[in-house]
């Protein structure tokens, strides 16, 4: 079976390779038929991964006796590793295996990791003994942590293949050279989020409840089986997919461009059509897949300037050393990535906010009154509020706002990326401000009662989790859309990897900020704001306000600087669309035999 899949994938990469700009009728299959399998696979995969991720803080707190800063560090570092491995996945997808095989092997690695983590819940010797009360807890042994880290590591490796390619592989199924294809692609990003979010809201409540109240082993076994189902669905639809052939490693090309541009930084030759090396690389089988010269980031053009033809080009006009002379296509691909960075940076602070709700937010709920009547609300369920708010907004936006606004304006009406990202940043600031207020109230009531568990109802935490979901709905979806639209079709795996790299950086920055706040707040013998198993002894609300302050700085950065890159991108996209519409009216002469 494996040999059949691999051989089929190789033949598919040769036969089904479609250049980005070929006519729609030349594209084989794909479209919403292929998307149905991809979204089905994605829904079950997300159900599996998020079932573990969303409740991992509770699991480590109750079964591994972790608490305070150590728990946050473990979760944040693992989350960061999970989100940085897509860089390796993007390399494999774009340069070696293609997106189909990278997705498949990534899913298998994640399945192995989930199996190992599931065993920690089923075998008592793999965990430390239960806490005696709420304070006296035996720490896990080194070998127990090592086994846990191996399982989490395989899950992170698997995510590298999945996260780098799932969105890009779905986007490959649409022909973006047609107006219909471009419109479908815009909806795909929202429906991609919507479909798996609905599946998670329906199933996650059951899974998390089973984990918290019935059996952690059964609760982990269910998502492991769901991941197996997602792999099966993905393989069933393998004959419907459009699979683009790997075009080479864009990261190495970027290094070549930077090296060549630095070497020629003193060159004063003005870039012109005759002075630029515009030779299509051999890896590009179709000339239409090669990017053409643009006027932005002109300092990088020096990498493609021909200073001395006799020493830099061979007899066929090909560069002798592509570390000294790069093609215009290579330079323009780096320009695409450079154009992404300002907006990409703005998204990181929003993701730090989301990081707080999955760690400290859950710890707040653990030390609160989770009873509603005779029913105990699992702390992991709070993430469902975020997902529901995200799904509701996307449904309203796609099914109510866009049709109504388009009917009134007589053209497609969508909120601009700038507006959506600004709203997302504001939601992040509000989320942390509300969380700080609620935490103050929670701690004060706990101290007044003299109890570890605060009498504050779990319902008071819903607003901060809802605002976290809206932060993701506005900021994360918009940043993802911008990254995928900014780059060339053959670089979408890179765009996906860059998006998840921002999540990774947010996790590591969160770890750094947590430890800095803990250190600085404890100077001169003062009480630390963070640390220990008991939040009632901490000043968590002050930490939240520090992150909210970073959000205010991020809003000013985006408003006065980064948003201009979106405006430039959207203007260039409109000019490109107008040019393509004009070209459609030109009658090309027939080829003479």
From TrEMBL:
One GO MF term: transmembrane transporter activity
Localization in the cell: Membrane
Main subcellular location: membrane
Keyword field contains Transmembrane: yes
Transmembrane segments: 70-93, 100-123, 146-169, 190-210, 216-237, 334-354, 380-400, 421-438, 458-483, 495-517, 543-566
PANTHER family xrefs: OLIGOPEPTIDE TRANSPORTER-RELATED
Family the entry assigns: Belongs to the major facilitator superfamily. Proton-dependent oligopeptide transporter (POT/PTR) (TC 2.A.17) family.
Protein name, per record: Protein NRT1/ PTR FAMILY 2.8
């Amino acid at each position: 079976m494996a040999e059949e899949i691999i051989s089929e994938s190789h033949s598919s990469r040769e036969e089904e390779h479609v250049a980005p700009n070929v006519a729609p009728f030349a594209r084989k299959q794909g479209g919403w038929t292929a998307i149905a399998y991809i979204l089905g696979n994605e829904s079950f995969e997300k159900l599996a991964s998020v079932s573990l991720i969303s409740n991992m803080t509770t699991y480590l707190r109750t079964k591994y006796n972790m608490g305070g800063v150590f728990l946050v560090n473990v979760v944040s570092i693992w989350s960061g590793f999970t989100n940085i491995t897509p860089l390796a996945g993007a390399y494999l997808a774009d340069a070696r295996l293609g997106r189909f095989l990278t997705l498949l092997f990534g899913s298998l690695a994640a399945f192995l990791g989930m199996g190992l983590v599931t065993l920690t819940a089923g075998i008592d010797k793999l965990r430390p003994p239960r806490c005696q009360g709420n304070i006296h807890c035996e720490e896990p042994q080194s070998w127990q942590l090592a086994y846990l880290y191996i399982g989490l590591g395989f899950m992170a490796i698997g995510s590298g293949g999945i996260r780098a390619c799932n969105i890009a592989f779905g986007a490959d199924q649409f022909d973006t050279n047609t107006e219909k294809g471009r419109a479908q692609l815009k909806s795909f990003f929202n429906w991609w989020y919507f479909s798996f979010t609905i599946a998670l809201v329906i199933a996650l409540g059951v899974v998390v409840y089973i984990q918290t109240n019935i059996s952690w082993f059964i609760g982990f076994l269910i998502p492991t089986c769901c991941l197996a189902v997602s792999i099966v669905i993905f393989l069933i639809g393998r004959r419907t997919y459009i699979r683009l052939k790997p075009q080479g490693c864009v990261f190495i090309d970027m290094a070549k461009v930077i090296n060549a541009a630095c070497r020629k930084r003193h060159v004063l030759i003005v870039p012109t059509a005759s002075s630029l090396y515009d030779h299509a690389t051999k890896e590009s089988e179709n000339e239409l897949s090669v990017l053409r010269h643009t006027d932005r980031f002109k300092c990088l053009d020096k990498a493609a300037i021909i200073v001395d033809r006799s020493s830099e080009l061979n007899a066929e006009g090909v560069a002798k050393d592509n570390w000294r002379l790069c093609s215009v296509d290579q330079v323009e691909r780096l320009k695409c990535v450079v154009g992404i960075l300002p907006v990409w940076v703005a998204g990181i602070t929003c993701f730090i906010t989301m990081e707080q709700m999955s760690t400290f937010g859950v710890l707040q709920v653990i030390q609160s009154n989770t009873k509603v009547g005779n029913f105990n609300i699992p702390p992991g369920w709070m993430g469902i509020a975020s997902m529901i708010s995200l799904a509701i907004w996307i449904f309203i936006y796609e099914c109510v706002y866009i049709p109504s606004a388009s009917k009134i304006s007589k053209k497609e009406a969508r909120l601009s990326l700038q507006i959506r990202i600004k709203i997302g940043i504001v939601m992040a600031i509000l989320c942390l401000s509300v969380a700080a207020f609620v935490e103050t109230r929670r701690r004060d009531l706990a101290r007044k009662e003299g109890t570890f568990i605060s009498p504050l109802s779990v319902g008071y935490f819903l607003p901060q989790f809802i605002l976290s979901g809206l932060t993701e709905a506005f900021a994360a979806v918009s940043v993802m859309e911008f990254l995928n639209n900014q780059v060339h079709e053959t670089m979408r795996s890179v765009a996906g990897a860059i998006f998840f790299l921002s999540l990774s950086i947010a996790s590591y920055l969160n770890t750094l900020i947590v430890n800095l706040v803990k250190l600085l707040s404890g100077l001169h013998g003062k009480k630390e704001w963070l640390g220990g198993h008991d939040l009632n002894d901490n000043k968590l609300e002050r930490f939240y306000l520090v992150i909210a302050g970073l959000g205010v700085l991020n809003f000013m950065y985006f408003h006065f600087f980064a948003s201009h890159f979106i405006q430039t991108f959207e203007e260039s996209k409109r000019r490109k669309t107008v040019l393509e519409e004009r070209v459609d009216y030109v009658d090309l002469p027939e080829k003479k035999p």
